[in-house]
Design goal:
10 helices; about 375 residues; eight-stranded mixed β-sheet; about 25% strand; alpha+beta; 17 strands
Length: about 375
């Protein structure tokens, strides 16, 4: 959560926000269509109540349309003026209403800002800037992408101030610009000159993180085998680790089939050539959701020993499950992994299960049902 005194409070969306999200998306999309008609790039001559078909699902059923997205909400916190609680320009503002939204989604190894909207009632109070900064922060080491119409000069200026640049278009619509921001480790995700105290401007780029492809199967097999040797030697019998290497071709085929068919999120961190440095898998929780277990589960997270301590593990975890509630299972005795997950907000909840390689302990962060979606 990001708190900006006197301006906006940025938080994750909750299921209770869905009606307000639908209304905000209607306002955003209707305003966009009006602008497009004014600039001659929309064939529509309709009104606010006659949005193009492709947009109606977002307004009428945002829960379904935004499935898999992460939604950030801006709430106003009015400043006190001579007449009570007012905005910067003196207009009355009620505390707490939805003042803006950002809709984020993974797209080909980057975090895409699909929607970014601030209510006209709070323009000039930094709501759009706060949402943009929160979106960039949510991306961690991932590049951030977005599209913007070329007549939105103020918005383009804001994006440029955060390090976005125009790149070759992936969307062929006339007058639509495609922008990208490529961060690095240590990047505070703030405008130039506003680095918080204690942060250094020296940066070192993390390896790119992207969705896995079936063609990664052989490299994933090598990574998975090496990572188990490095993490579990002394915790798992040596003969178990040796047996895993008997038929790497069969393992690669299973990886290929799994990547091609899974509904889970599978991310990889690239190395040099075809070599991979880490991977993460996340999806719907496999345990019964009784007792308020989160809906999201981190099913696997491995990095090579050579990149321990570089922040790559945290980056993979964040890209796979965001900052929201989740559960995971960790091998008993794997003190290094347990400490790592504790630093990410996970806690042992007392659940145990027996696995062929040893006893596993469950760790949980937060509770279920308190977010619309996570990247």
């Amino acid at each position: 959560m990001t708190i900006l005194p006197g301006r906006a409070r940025i938080r994750e969306a909750h299921p209770d926000d869905l009606p307000a999200i639908g209304m905000a998306l209607r306002a955003y999309l209707a305003g966009t269509e009006e602008e497009k008609r004014a600039h001659g790039v929309s064939p529509s001559t309709g009104t606010e109540d006659e949005l193009p078909e492709r947009y109606r699902a977002e307004v009428e059923d945002p829960e379904r349309a935004l499935a898999g997205c992460r939604v950030l909400i801006a709430e106003v916190e009015p400043a006190a003026g001579p007449g009570g609680r007012t905005s910067a320009d003196g207009r009355e503002v009620t505390a707490g209403p939805l003042a803006g939204i950002a809709v984020l989604a993974l797209r080909e190894g980057s975090l895409e800002i699909k929607r970014l909207w601030a209510s006209p009632a709070v323009r000039g109070r930094g709501v759009g800037s706060a949402l943009l900064d929160a979106a960039v922060e949510a991306a961690g080491p991932l590049p951030v992408t977005l599209t913007v119409w070329d007549w939105r000069e103020r918005a383009i200026g804001l994006y440029r101030s955060r390090g976005f640049t125009v790149v070759p278009a992936w969307d062929a619509r006339p007058r639509l610009l495609c922008l990208r921001r490529s961060p690095a480790v240590g990047d505070p995700s703030r405008a130039a000159g506003s680095t918080p105290a204690g942060l250094t401007t020296a940066t070192r780029a993390l390896p790119p993180i992207r969705p896995a492809r079936p063609a990664d199967a052989a490299a994933l097999t090598d990574l998975h085998l090496d990572a188990w040797d490095e993490a579990y030697t002394g915790l798992i019998p040596a003969e178990v680790l040796s047996a895993r290497r008997v038929d790497p071709e069969a393992r690669a085929r299973r990886w290929e089939d799994s990547i091609a068919s899974t509904r889970n999120t599978v991310l990889v961190a690239e190395g040099t050539g075809e070599r991979l440095l880490g991977f993460a898998i996340a999806g719907a929780g496999r345990d019964e959701p009784a007792g308020g277990l989160p809906e999201r589960e981190l099913m696997a997270l491995y990095v090579r020993a050579e990149v321990y301590g570089t922040g790559l593990g945290h980056a993979l975890l964040r890209a796979a499950i965001g900052e929201g509630p989740a559960s995971l299972w960790v091998l008993e005795g794997n003190a290094r992994a347990i400490r790592f997950y504790e630093r990410q907000g996970f806690r042992l909840d007392g659940a145990r299960k027996e696995d062929p390689v040893g006893t596993e302990l469950r760790m949980v962060r937060g509770t279920g049902g308190d977010a619309v979606g996570s990247a």
